[in-house]
Each structure stands twice: as structure tokens, then as C-alpha cells.
Amino acid sequence: MEMKSHTRRNVLKGAAAGAAIIFSPSIVRAQTREIFIGGPGIPGLTNGLFPLIEKKHNIKVLFEGTNSLVNFEKMQANKSRPNMTLVMMDDPVLVMADRENLIQRLPSDLSNLADVPDSAKPRGGMWVNWCQPMASFAYNTKAVKEAPTSYADAWSDKYRDRIVLVSMRITQAIVPLLAATNLATGAPLAQCLPLWREGIPKLKALRPNILQISSNYAQAQQLNETGECDILMSPDSRSTLLRKSQGAPVDQAYPREGLFAMPAGVALVKGGPNEELGRIFLNEMMSPETQAYIAQSFFSRPTNSKTVLPASLKFPDLIPLDWGYFAENRNQMIEIFEREISAR
Question: What is the enclosing helix (H) or strand (E) of 266?
Fold first, then answer.
């Protein structure tokens, strides 16, 4: 008898649970209106941009902030059962993700993509650049009273042991390499990427001025802010101008040779969960209104041509780079950089 009674109770429990699901559709909706985004661990996403879109579209974002290569490795490991809906990565890593069939082409019916130029929709629209951070180099405003006006300034004797250079394993390290190539060849920065090997001897000549070569981006920024180095080569505007706005004694240089457009891409993961919600989220991210918010919050040029910015916010023309070429040559760049520049 006891066994029968116990079974009956279990059946009733199950029936009650089923009834709760049937008569509480809001619970089901709440559980399913979630997307998982993998992206950079930068300020302003989880405490600014994401809540803005979540509230507007009743979407809950689960986010894991880490660097692009780590997310790429996770996508590879989970290829048969993807758990990310969207991924935010540097373009060179998105090139790799595309080659391994880990992302899918963006749908043509996303209305806001029509106002984004093809140059910001790489590889025929496999992903879209949600903004274009500016990259040159940062300087400590207490130590450097007059803003540097040329990349060549970094080679001046006055900066001996006063420069922190980021490792070639960080995407922004392409900036000092191409600055060195420009100085070595005289070619415009926009034409320097295929000539990068010619810049290695010039970058090597910077070694007397290099205090440290850092693979820890946050630590390098801290050294610049505390005045332990005068110049940091090279972060981008998302970090430098954010910290400036928060009162840190740093600023971004605007060399006459030009500033680079850094890659900031967002893509749909192939076979990822809740794809329709991912599309809604991405389309909202690219709307003129949200793009204006992004420009002001991330100190980066918007990519939607219909974005209206306040008169106080202006961005210079930026130099685009061929990130496909960069992805193909990155390992060689790292190998030569670590042999010729990092080795002492």
C-alpha cells in the first residue's frame, strides 16, 4: 500500500507541475527569451549597452567577457552544440571563425544593416562592425605637456625607457608596427600593411625607449596612468578616452599621419540558440539611436550612416586595414616580433 500511495503522490506532483507550465506561459517566455553573448570584457557592455537593448526588446543577455581567441576556442569546442547566440570579436579572429564555418552570414532582412557601408560588413556580410574604435597611442598628460603630433615622436631620445609597447599578440600592436613601416618606407599608413616586414628594423630601433613590452593590456594602461611610462603604444579609444572621461591623466594622440580603425565585429553563431532573438538584438545594436549611444559611450565612430551625433562629438577619418591579410600573416608577425623586438 505504501508503494502505491507514494506513486500516486508523485503523479499528482507531476500533474501540478504540468498545470503550472500550461497556465503560466509567461514563465516559459521568460525562460526562452535569453541569448548568450561571448565578447570582450570591456566596460560599458553589461552596465550600459546590453541593459538598453534588453529593456527595449524584453531580452535577457547572458554574457561571458573574455578575449576573442578564448571565445574562438570555445566555439571550436562546442561546434556540434553551440551555446552562444552572438559573438563579439576582433575581425582577424572572425576571419578564422568564418573559415571554420562557426558563424553564419547575416540575414539580408535586418533593416538597419542597409545603412551600414559594405566596408563595415566584412566578407560579404558575415559579420558587421558595431563600431570603429580609433587607435594611435596614448600618453600621460602630466608627463607629456604637449600632445605628440607624429608617430615619429616616439623615437625621440626624450622618451628613453619611457614607452610601454603592447605585445604583438594583442591586435592593437599592429599600430606601432605600421607606424615604424611608414617611417622606414615613406609609404602612407594605408599602404603599409603589406610592407610590414620593412618596419621591423625601425621598430627594433625603438628598443632604447621601451620600458616594457606587455601582454597584459590592463597592466599596461595602469603604468601609463600612474606615470611610470609616458607613452603607451597602442591602446584604442574605447579604453583611453573612457579613462580620460573618468579623470585619469591620459589622452589619445592624433598623429598627422592618421589614426587606424580598429576591428569590433559582431556575428551570429552558426546553429546558436534563439537565433531570432539574436537577430533582433543585433539589428537594434545597429540602429541609429543605439549607434549614437555606442559612439558616446565607447568613444568610437558609429558605422550606421544615419546616426546623428551631438555637435560636440566628432571623429576623424580613420585608416581601414585588411584584417584578412592580417589574420593570414599574424603568426609570422608574432614570431618575428618576439625574436627581433621582445628578445633582449
Answer: strand 265-269
